[in-house]
Amino acid sequence: MLTSVDTDLIRVLADPLRLRIVTLLAHETLCTTHLVEETGARQTNLSNHLKVLRDAGVVDTEPCGRFTYYKLRPDVIEAVAGSFSDLAATARATAAADKKRACQ
Prior knowledge:
By secondary structure, the chain is α+β, with helices and mostly antiparallel strands. It is 63% helix and 13% strand. A three-stranded antiparallel sheet has the order 1-3-2. The two termini are 27 Å apart.
């Protein structure tokens, strides 16, 4: 079953730019400069999205001199994916049992 935490994370990841950032960070740890180059987004816009991802616990930061690197937290993504897997398993079982609520 999806929890309120899951739905909050889904909302965070539903934004196309944030999903693009997460996808990029799945492949490598990047700083804001790299993310600006890869996404074409303005630095201020990107920083706002990164703050949302940080606040949601999706990414961790790593200071390196005057730059901040961002790293994806795979455990968070796995938790949401696990909730969807559980939901799919429930739907499969329901379909197999032909479970249907009667109309009144």
